[in-house]
Amino acid sequence: MSDLQKRAAADSGHSEAVRHQPSADDNPISFARRKVLGAAVTAGAALPLLSSAGFLAMTTGAALPLISSPSLAATAPAVKTSGESIVPFRIAIPQSDLDDLRQRLALTRWPEKETVQDWSQGVPLAKAQALVAAWRDRYDWRAFERKANQFPQFLTQIDGLDIHFIHVKSPEPNALPIILTHGWPGSFSEFIETIGPLTDPVRHGGKASEAFDVVIPSLPGYAFSGKPTAPGWNIEKTAATWAKLMQRLGYKRWVAQGGDWGASVTSTLGQLRPEGLIGIHLNWAFVFPEVLPEKLSAEEQRAVDQANVFKTQGIGYFKQLSTKPQTMGYGLLDSPVALATYIYEKFQVWSDNNGDPEQALSTTTMLDDITLYWLTRSGASAGRFYWENPGNSFAGGTIEVPVAVSVFPREIYQVPKSWAIKTFPKLIYFNEVDKGGHFAAMEQPKIFTDELRRAFVSLR
Predict the structure, then answer these.
(1) At the N or C end, where does the chain have fewer CB atoms within 10 A?
(2) What is the domain extent for residue 61?
(3) Considering the entire predicted model, what is its pTM?
(4) CA-to-CA distance for 154 and 42, rounded, in angstroms?
(5) Lowest-pLDDT range, 53-57, 110-114, 319-323?
(6) 3-class SS of residue 216
């Protein structure tokens, strides 16, 4: 058993109590996400190289009763999960919570205008006011509820924590099961538009042989998953939990996909190699050499430059959340404007746009995600996932299961194939697409779906 497998086995012995409480996780983070900025320097630059942990180290049942989502004041739904039961779940936010949100938005205290003409100081005042006006006056949360509730949702308890997930089975009998994992500041809402095309490709321009059974869990402390009450829910434990979830659903042969934290969890699954996992797909592959070669190809230089920009200009949020998530949580839980602008900024910086996030994502789509964080009070508990994974807990090394990689042009950095193939000796698919950014499934659901169809052809 590898060191990583031993640690995951040890982690799975924790039994954090319970549901919808403030969260925490266990030890430090993912894989080459930490390596990324370790070498993120241009050739000859004076910035120090980081170790293999570079990126993060540097910053440091149908018959069962239906559970509805809790109100802001509630600590738990009336019905709890137990044992290995899988309990149907439906989103039903009380109207009083929505009224409270609008009242808070109406009482916003605004700062003065920024002293620059761009986003270099953060979200411009005019953009923030327009977003909040849309949220307060025009946004319809119930429309998102109806959309999400079209899909079967469930809760199941694993190692003492309730895990929320969507589970949609394909009408095709030979569908390939896939577990999709979101990141921050994303959520299960990232994948909503891909569920139909993935599960029922014939109705969406594909072939029956391309069908998937889709499982979309919410990370611990995110959305309607439980909020851990003690440290322990790190990436390794989360990956082991996903393996248990797929086993509990009866899948003997399955694949995994992820970006952002989802890529960390999915990469860790590839390292753990749980029974049944036959391959993974990443839309942000965390690979970066510990020491850069003297001569870089154009693609390698591009990745270095992009990572260096992130290291020097975009890492503040990571340092905040990985060191003091509780302090950050007070503002994110008490002020909807603080939460909205914190997330909105990332939609602008990380999506495929020419200055305005609305060029990549609709205002409604962004507000669906932001409102999900607000109504589930996930600002602090989601932030603790960074605290649990700030440094060097991932064993690193190569991933021996088959790996597929899709590179989107406005990703934080675009991994070159020359680096990917060294970390993924069983690289079965690698493609650079022409549109999309960090929120790949949300920005370009059709391209994302097509990439997954192509990525796993050889494993069906």
Answers:
(1) N
(2) 3-94+138-459
(3) 0.86
(4) 47
(5) 53-57
(6) strand
CA distances from 230 to 15, 23, 384 (A): 9, 7, 11
pLDDT of residue 177: 98
28: Cβ–Cβ under 8 A, 6 or more apart, which residues?
53, 56, 57, 234, 388, 389, 390, 391, 392, 393, 394
Annotated catalytic residue: which of 25, 97, 162, 260?
260
Q: Does 125 reside within a domain?
A: no
CB atoms under 10 Å from CB of 396, counted, come to: 17
> In Å, what is the CA distance from 445 to each residue of 259, 300, 431?
14, 27, 16
260 catalytic? Reply is: yes
> What are the DSSP E strand ranges found in 336-402?
none
- In degrees to the nearest 10, what's the CA dihedral of 133, 135, 137, 138? 120
Using CA atoms, how far apart are residues 428 and 406, in angstroms rounded to an integer? 11
From 210, 211, 185, 204, select the one nearest 339 (Cα to Cα): 185
CATH of the domain at 73: 3.40.50.1820
Examine residue 84 and state whether it is found in any structural domain, yes or no: yes
What amino acid is encoded at 400 in this protein? E
Which pLDDT band, with edges at 50, 70 and 90, does 108 fall under? very high
Question: Taking a C-beta distance cutoff of 8 angstroms, is the pair 278, 177 a contact?
Answer: no
Residue type, 73: A
Asked whether the beta carbons of 440 and 431 are under 8 A apart, the reply is no
Question: Catalytic site residue 14?
Answer: no
Domain count, the chain: 1
Phi, psi dihedrals of residue 406, rounded to the nearest 5°:
-115, 130
Give catalytic status of residue 200 as yes or no.
Answer: no
**Is 131 part of a structural domain of the chain?**
no
pLDDT tens readout for residues 368-406: 999 999 999 999 999 999 999 986 434 457 899 999 999
Looking at residue 86, the DSSP 8-state letter turns out to be: E
